[in-house]
Write a structure and sequence with these properties.
alpha/beta, Arc Repressor Mutant, subunit A, seven-stranded mixed sheet, two-stranded antiparallel sheet, 11 helices, 40% helix, elongated
Length: 304
């Protein structure tokens, strides 16, 4: 009797190679050789009659057919994982893998405590965490979830808001002793305000204020302008380079230890949203669903 799915090992090789980014990395993960991996993918492409991967000496890229096949294959493997857990009665000891992408702000200052609690509750779930300010392509790069800042773009992605993170303006005692303390938003024009170039627009990001109940967006002008990693503004501010606007959760401990001083609190009250997102057509694994539910519930409980 012929086996309908005797090629599933080749499918697993294909998924692994895409997730690892190269034939050699996929071979290491599967404890085999690049030539074996290459033959497996070639067999799969021959069987399907389409090219799944474009191979160059430097990188791999998915064809449109490969992207579609990757998404459906991940869904199929996720369903098999869930079926095995159900049959074996392992719902109480949730396992699996979640690939998660987060920005540096959330990844360094907000997520560690949350993931630590999640890990204690679900020790068998493996988290593969990428901390970067680059907006990854969830489907093409094999991520299950991502945490992103700002309103969700009209990209077809599904999102659940985690929180509205409060903003604050801070500077070091040394800077304030030298330059004085700004008493209003307008007085910031006479100070060294550390600006950040938004990677999505190439423009300086506005500082958000609320004066007399009215929202105001103010564009900082400074001799020092940062890009790529917004956490750099906090580091420079702490070393007396100027004033920055950042999230309260980033500088809370620095304020408690008086390394940074909060400013213009009468013009505070603005925030920016963080959300967890995932592709709409992907069948989320039990582990991914558990992580989404855990993060949203934990952040909601902290806000009470």
């Amino acid at each position: 009797m012929s086996r309908r799915f005797d090629y599933l090992a080749d499918v697993e090789v294909f998924v692994t190679v895409v997730e690892k980014g190269s034939l050699s990395a996929g071979a290491v993960s599967l404890a085999t050789t690049p030539s074996v991996v290459s033959r497996a993918i070639s067999r799969l492409e021959t069987r399907l009659g389409v090219q799944l991967l474009r191979r160059t000496t430097r990188r791999l890229s998915l064809t449109d057919a490969g992207l579609l096949y990757l998404e459906q294959s991940r869904t199929a493997f996720s369903l098999i994982d869930d079926a095995e857990r159900a049959i074996l009665g392992q719902e109480g000891t949730l396992s699996g893998r979640v690939r998660l992408s987060v920005p540096t702000t959330y990844g360094h200052y907000r997520l560690p405590a949350l993931l630590s609690r999640f890990n204690r509750q679900y020790p068998q779930v493996r988290i593969e965490l990428s901390i970067s300010n680059r907006n990854v392509d969830l489907v093409a790069e094999g991520y299950d979830l991502a945490i992103r800042l700002g309103p969700l773009p009209d990209s077809g992605l599904i999102g659940r808001k985690l929180e509205d993170a409060n903003l604050c303006v801070v500077a070091s005692p040394d800077y304030l002793q030298r330059a004085g303390i700004p008493r209003s938003v307008d007085e910031l024009a006479g100070h060294a305000c550390l600006s950040f170039v938004m990677p999505s627009t190439g423009r300086v990001g506005p500082w958000l204020f609320r004066e007399h109940g009215v929202d105001r967006d103010w564009i900082p002008q400074a001799n020092v302008q940062l890009s790529d990693d917004v956490l750099g503004t906090v580091s420079l501010a702490e070393h007396g380079m100027g004033i920055c606007q950042t999230y309260d959760f980033i500088v809370r401990e620095r304020i408690k230890s008086a390394r940074l001083i909060p400013l213009l609190e009468q013009a505070g009250g603005r925030s920016r949203p963080f959300s967890v997102i995932y592709p709409p057509h992907r069948q989320l694994s039990a582990a991914s669903r558990a992580l989404i539910d855990f993060l949203t519930q934990e952040v909601a409980d902290e806000a009470l």
